[in-house]
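Write out the 3D structure for:
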Amino acid sequence: MPFTTGALVDDALSGRIASLRHGATALFWIVWAVTLVATLVPRGPCLTAVRLVLPASAAAALWCSALVTIDATAVAGVVVSIAASAASLVAPAGEEFVNGSSYGDERRMLLRPPAALLVLLVPLAAIAVMVGAVAGVLLLLAHMWIIGAVAVVVGLPVAVVATRALHQLTRRWVVFVPAGFVLHDHLALREPVLFPRTDIVKLGPAPADTRATDFTAGASGLAIQVDFAVPVSVTPAAGTDEVEMVGITQFLVMPSRPGHLLAEAERRRIRVARG
């Protein structure tokens, strides 16, 4: 990316104030280096960073391509940044990152984000992070001191809050452990719950007429239903401030990779019903 997207950014800023051009180029290299380290040391927080930076780089490349004469450098910068962004957003990449922080014989399976958040709030939060973190610095480099200072003071706290909110979406998992599996989802449960393997009757795609408790948080895709032999106690996240446990015999989750989850369940000797 430094030699393709970075070159495109440098060309787009040619003729600008020297401090802006050199500062923006240096900022790009720093962000690229940090993101490269994040990909080489996959952890949950690194996934948030990569999924913020690479799509933002693709957007920046598209914007810069409109400011320069289209040539091989511009095309390469756009293509490489879009390819990197797409690679960071696929479900297998997400699982590799979150499992970099797993312990022992456990396997984490990411859950799909709620559809309403994914379509509107997630893109807005990502824009708030990148604009809040970068806009003030670029304005200062352009010698726009007052507006740049205001942008830094206002933008950085907004970026921090939005980053934390986005990071929470990468901490929603089904976690397979030797004893069974854990549902770790702050949108569904107040606390993570371990469901012992011996209590699970079956696990598989949910039928269309299911009446199971919905823990999908409004996500779209193939829901997986978990059935238990006896009621299990959980504390749903929704409701009043009072902690109230309820007993359920079925519930639904929406993993990013349903087939992968079913295969892991079979490997863990959990009964799987595939339809």
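Residues 178-267 form one domain.
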